[in-house]
Structure formats: C-alpha cells, structure tokens
Amino acid sequence: MHVACALGQGLVTIVPKESISPIGTESFCLLRSGRSGDSSPRQRKETRMPRISVLVILLLCLSALPLRAQETLTVHSLTIQDEKAVFATVESVKEVAARSRLTGTVIEIGVKEGDLVRPGQVIARVVDEKLALQIRSMESHIAALRAQFDKAAVDLERTKQLIASGNVSRARLDEVQAQYNIAEGALNAAVSDRDVIVRQAREGEVLAPVAGRILHVPLTIGTVVMPGEAIATLAGENYVLRLSVPERYGLSLQIGDPVKLEDGNRVNIVKVYPKIENGRVTVDADINGLAGYFVGKRVRTWIAGGERQTIVVPKEYIITRYGIDYVHVRQPDGRVMEVPVQRGGAVSTSDIEQGVEIISGLRDGDILEKP
C-alpha cells in the first residue's frame, strides 16, 4: 500500500511498508519539482528525508483504512409508569404517654430524649410526702392494736383454763372470745390500710407502657404533678412512612401498591385513610426496620401517578459537554449530527437495563449512533 500527498508543487511518495526496515535504518523519498517526464537540464534532485519511526508509518497506514461500522439504535416511544414525587414523614404507629398515678413531686427522672425503654421500665419517681407520714401513723396504730390483740389472746387462754377447773362461767368465756375476735379484726384492718398506703406510695414509680423510644420529657425534678399528668412521651417500636398525597393521585392508591424511597428501596402501602383533608389523602407505608433514629424525619418518595409515553435511550449514547447533553443522530442523507437533548431520570426497561429518559430533542424513529 502506497500513501501519497501533495507538498507544495511536488509530490512526496512513501515506499511500501513491506520494504521499510526496522528502526535504525533510513527511508528515502523522491521530491519532484516538475512533471515526471520533465527533460530539463536541471538534474533530478534526490532529497534525503529524516528518519521516520515505525509508529508514525503505522498511524498513516491505519488512517487510510476504512472506519468500522458504528453501533446504531432506532428510538421508539415506550409506555412507562409515571411517578410523582411526594414528601413523607416517619411516624410511630403508637405514640403514648407515661403518666403519673398520684399527686406529688417528681424526685427522679431516669430517662432522656432518644433513650430506648422496655415495657414496665421505671421512667421517673413521684413522691407524696403525706403518704410517708400516713405510713408512720399507721405503723404506730398497728403496734397499739397488736398489743391489744396480744392481751386478748392471753385473756382467752387464761379463761379457757379457768373454765376447765369450773372457776368461771361459760358466759365469761364467750365475752373474752368476742374481745379476742374484735382485737384480731382491728389489727388485720389496720395492716390492710397500711398496705394500701404503701401500695399507693409505690405508684409513684412512672412505668413505660410499651417498648419504644423516648420522644419528649416535658418535666424536671421538683415539678409537682397531678394524677394522669404526662411525665414522658414514647414512640412505639413500629414505624410507618406517612404520605400526604394529592387527591388526584391518592384516590387510585390501594393497599400493597409500591412506594419508591430516595435511597432506592421500595416499600408497600399498608393503609389508606378514607378521610380527605385539604384535598389530600393520607397513606401509610410499612418501613419497619428502615426508619432509623428520628421520628418525624422527612423522606422524599415517589408513587405511581398513571402511565405516559416517553423515549428511553441507553446512557452510553449520551455525551455531555459544558453541562449540555448531546446525542449523535443520523440524518436521512447519511450525515451524523450532534443534537442537544434534555434528559430526565434513570429508567430501566426490559431491553435497556441502564436507560435515561429523554424529555425533548428526539422523535420516534430517530436513528442514534453510539459515540
């Protein structure tokens, strides 16, 4: 194969590559200033060319070879699921309050916001100082009743001995027995009253009603509380993703429909609330195990909003320069032009695993060449 090119008014001819020696040898070419048949007295001048590396010669040879066939793609409109972006919040299925069961002063708070608690765990302690006084008073009263009971027991035993010897009447025995029973009943009643007060004092322990995470502790140590007042607010361990969907799209949602999260995960709808508020439908999606730490966190999601026609091309057919996306479109006369396009989001189809939606710039039937 020969390669020839015009140089000024002469012609440079490169010898065939088969006759080129390895690097270190010299190649020559003839520079003809006139026609090949010129018989002027000027002698044909042989000019020695600089050494030409094998790499340069190979590049010249490759440039003369025909170009390989370009990969092409004929674009067609596809029907895809139209997704609508909706912001949702992480909510607890159960949000309950741990409440005080008596009137008193908060003397201890054992948790803080963010702590995990188990059912029955002591969250705080409330003390009513009057209960301690009542318990001491009842202890003294029980001691006096116990002494009366002990005396009645001794009297009853002595009377039984005397009646056996015939020194007292049967009526006296009945009287002493009644006094013994009265003393025993009074003692048992006092002990029960004391136990009630002790139990009431123990109700100062504020317990966690469910397992979950502490959301809010509105009180401090020393605060006086009433029965039923909230000491802490807990979020149950089960979480949902609560979406507020426009009525236009919410009416078509059903339990089991997928919801796409911004991290690529997909969850399913578990509840659709029947009440429409301010033109929006409330929907819950189950994200148990994906909620993370924060309750109330906002999450961007996508829901199905119907179907639409669009064009999807593989991402390797798109080139980007200076922030503008282009594709190579083959024209009817065979020319290839760079056409700017507006790309959308990533779309996967049965034929294109990593596709990109083209919003504008292409028409159905356009032929693309891979760059």
UniProtKB/TrEMBL annotation:
<dbReference type="GO" id="GO:1990281">
    <property type="term" value="C:efflux pump complex"/>
</dbReference>
<dbReference type="InterPro" id="IPR058625">
    <property type="entry name" value="MdtA-like_BSH"/>
</dbReference>
<dbReference type="GO" id="GO:0015562">
    <property type="term" value="F:efflux transmembrane transporter activity"/>
</dbReference>
<feature type="domain" description="Multidrug resistance protein MdtA-like barrel-sandwich hybrid">
    <location>
        <begin position="96"/>
        <end position="231"/>
    </location>
</feature>
<dbReference type="Pfam" id="PF25917">
    <property type="entry name" value="BSH_RND"/>
</dbReference>
<dbReference type="InterPro" id="IPR006143">
    <property type="entry name" value="RND_pump_MFP"/>
</dbReference>
<protein>
    <submittedName>
        <fullName>Efflux RND transporter periplasmic adaptor subunit</fullName>
    </submittedName>
</protein>
<comment type="similarity">
    <text>Belongs to the membrane fusion protein (MFP) (TC 8.A.1) family.</text>
</comment>
